[in-house]
Amino acid sequence: MTEAVLQLRNVTKSIGGRKIVDNLSFDIPAGEVFGFLGPNGAGKTTTIRMIVGLISMSKGEALIKGVSVREHFELAMTHVGAIVENPEMYKFLTGYQNLAHFARRHKGVTKERINEVVKLLGLQNRIHEKVKRYSLGMRQRLGVAQAILHRPSLLILDEPTNGLDPAGIRELRDYLRKLTREEGISVIVSSHLLSEMELMCDRVAIIQAGKLIDIRSLQEARDSIQSKIVIEVGDLLAAQQLLASIFDVSRVEVNGNLLELAADKAAIPDIARLLVSSDIDVLGIHAVQKSLEEQFLEITGGEMVV
Amino acid sequence: MSSLSNLIRNENMKIYRRPRTWLMIAFLILAIGLMSGIMKWDASQNANQDWQNNLTERNTHMQQELQNNKELSEGDETYLTNEIKLNEYYLEQNINPNQLSLWSYVNTSTSLIMLATILTVIIAADMIAAEFTWGTIKLLLVGPASRTKILLSKYIATLGFALLLLIVTFATAYAAGGILEGFDGTSQSRITITEAGVIQESSYFVNSLEKYGFSVVSMLMYVTMAFMISSAFRSSSMAIAFSLLFMLVGNVLSAFLSGYSWVKYLLFSNIDLTQYLSGSTPLRPEMTLTFSIMMLFAYYVVFQFVAWLLFTKRDVAA
């Protein structure tokens, strides 16, 4: 079994008696993109900043590759690359000088490695220009470059897509996928945008008011997406009896003058034939999918995630 | 883990890659150049005077004072006797004491160390606060270097800048003196008279270093104070403004309040150690050199500790 790259153990932050983050514990295995989802003010940023030591923990521990951030900060940080919000760079330096600045903090980041990363992110044409002339998208790419120079095992991104246009978000997403696939880096990313997380992450943790509500695998969530078939018929009662006798009773529901059946789209032709052959008039029939967003809204108790 | 020397290189890069830094250095060089030019111009205004006659006249005058004035203290008496002796020596050796030499420029440049201090205070006050203003503090701290190490690297880089400005001040004054009066003045010795009336020759270079040394003490204190203020504020303009305010108002305040005995515990009352040199009087009669050195040391420790505490223990949330 591979050891988890990041382990949180009862991480708590209280300020003035109020718990901003309350007893958070979870593990992130190697190569996983882990999302941190929650409404604004839920404690996402605070948690991420505690992991990287920007904010002190009131209680608990974060272990990066088994090394405690609290006790051996320097050693733990050798495994971490981070982008905290919009990566602010030194604007009076060139892109290359900025990278050299961050490279110098780590052992063994060679000039070749810097050039390799520059090429990887497609910055080679303008790397010797001052950062103040970069667009936001380029700064973001430089931020990613800075974070992966030293080949970290864990990449931490705090609201990385703030202020990025859709193309920029897409680019970042593709790039993160590539990193996890090719270099086995684990990524932890926080966002309040569900649609982004859906596309980026393998698993998401949902936190609300500092507490962990749920951790789910997005693959599972996608598989368990319940689609239902909504049927409008002439004789509601007869149709209900008929379908209940064939499908499970619990899967058939009457909703107003519509009949809802928990089943996949593929069942529509069979159902239509069945109803017609039983002399029930079919006025309409279509499939409806329950979106991830609906599922999450259910989990967070209806509070808006966005 | 980051090595300290690499972190210092990073800080140096952030100081010297900014055009502002080079404007400061250019400004300092310009100021010293201007000072040298004014000295030369002033000397040329008085050039036609006969210095030998002047010295003889002054000696006769002092001689009369010694004979006629019965109220002279013992100290004044030795002072006058020694002055006369020194002037006679000048006449004998045919040395014009008012003649500008290379070292006159270097000596006068010590008064411009105040300017170098102000410039270094600006850099020091900017050192930490600017990272917050730029938003780069997060990336700076999220790395394999402890906050203590980062703080230390920033402090060392600041001291490096102070040292650079001192060298620039000295070198510019030396060069200006050399150009205006000739570099052969370098080997000239300094003629002084001891209290016992013995005429001595000493090195001008050593004398200049001594003068610089006193200024370095106050520079170190002001810069360390500014560094602490930088650690306290998250806006560089606020940090610079407060540092300069304390520095410029502090001295005036100390002098203004010198009637109260508690003034001796203020930083600004102790920062100028030249007040204990012979010929000067300290701010308060009970103050001694040892007292001031101890006070400065205590302030230094407090500044460092507060800077460290503020930098390492605070959460970076914004």
Task: Describe the overall structure.
Chain A has 306 residues and is an alpha/beta fold. Chain A has two domains: 217 residues, Rossmann fold, CATH 3.40.50; 64 residues, Alpha-Beta Plaits. Chain A is 34% helix and 28% strand. Chain A is elongated. The two termini of chain A are 36 Å apart. In chain B, strands 1-2 form a two-stranded antiparallel sheet. Chain B has one domain. In chain B, strand 1 and strand 2 form a beta hairpin. Chain B has 318 residues and is mainly alpha-helical. At the A-B interface, helix 2, strand 6 and helix 3 of A face helix 1 and helix 7 of B.
Strand and helix map with partners:
The complex is a heterodimer of chains A (306) and B (318).
Chain A: E1 6-15, E2 18-28, E3 33-37, H1 44-51, E4 59-64, E5 67-68, H2 73-77, E6 80-84, H3 95-103, H4 111-120, H5 136-148, E7 154-158, H6 166-183, E8 186-191, H7 194-200, E9 203-208, E10 211-217, H8 218-223, E11 227-233, H9 236-246, E12 252-255, E13 258-262, H10 268-277, E14 282-289, H11 292-299
Chain B: H1 4-16, H2 19-45, H3 51-68, H4 74-93, H5 102-109, H6 113-134, H7 137-141, H8 147-181, E1 189-193, E2 199-203, H9 204-232, H10 236-256, H11 267-270, H12 289-313
Antiparallel strand pairs in B: 1-2
Helix pairs in contact in B: 1-8, 2-8, 3-4, 5-8, 6-8, 6-9, 6-10, 8-9, 9-10, 9-12
Summed up:
The complex is a heterodimer of chains A (306) and B (318). By secondary structure, chain A is an alpha/beta fold.
